[in-house]
Amino acid sequence: MGLGKNGRAIIAPRISQACAHLPVRNEPRWFASQRHTHQNIPEAVVPWLLDRSSLTARVLRACDGGFRVELLGQWRGRPLPGEAQFLGIPVGRHALIREVRLCCDRERWVYARSVIPLATLHGAGRKLGNLGTRPLGAVLFADRRVRRTAVELARVQPGELIHRHALQGLPESRDPIWGRRSLFRIAAAPLLVSEWFLPGLPRFPGGKR
């Protein structure tokens, strides 16, 4: 644990060390969201994966009180090789990495990992470096300069690194979990957000956000 410029603790969880040199083949196998009909995705998860609105707003609607963000860690480190490639930055270049879980009271519904290149933290993206327990999605969708340019889906099995870390401290699950990753641009600068839907996720709330 270290201290950021504002004196807040910056926690680097185990995944940051374990993933530092992972080859791409050990990462989730992502595919374009348009191919979801060819995959064996649980019906209840599909609308969560494909929704284009703010995930934070959807979770707030489903929770109906008691929403909170559990900050697992935030640090400057090397993204996974596949993350760097998706962002279009050199493999090994440092970025700001942030991991949280979106919760409703004591239930954890979503594990999210964001990767923000250091160059994105200047200008319009400066506010992204000190979110604390504020949800990143709420900040992004409130900024009209932000555009989502690509969405991919993936599944991780029990025993895989992302699965273990997403569920750390929670009851063991033998079921795979599904997730999506989105490439956003704020004033043309990229950032990557991956969101994994955990066991116990409620029914997708309909209606406008």
Count of helical stretches: 6
Percent of residues in β-strands: 25-35%
Shape: globular
Instruction: Describe the main β-sheet briefly.
Output: 7 strands, antiparallel
The CATH architecture comes to: 3-Layer(aba) Sandwich
* Helical content (DSSP H or I, runs of 4+): 10-25%
CATH superfamily: Chorismate lyase-like
Radius of gyration, in Å, reads 16 Å
Order of helices and strands: EEHEHHEHEEHEHEE
Care to count the β-strands? 9
Question: Order of strands across the biggest sheet?
Answer: 3-7-8-9-6-5-4
Keywords:
alpha+beta, Chorismate lyase, two-stranded antiparallel sheet, 33% strand, disordered N terminus
Provide a descriptive summary of the structure in words.
The chain is of the alpha+beta class. The protein has a single domain (13-149, 177-197), classed as Chorismate lyase. The chain contains six helices and nine strands. The strands form two sheets. The chain has a seven-stranded antiparallel beta sheet with strand order 3-7-8-9-6-5-4. The protein has a two-stranded antiparallel ribbon with strand order 1-2. A hairpin with a 2-residue loop joins strand 8 (177-186) and strand 9. The longest helix has 9 residues, at 55-63. The protein starts with a strand and ends in a 12-residue tail after the last strand. Mean pLDDT is 86; it is low at 1-9 and 16-25.
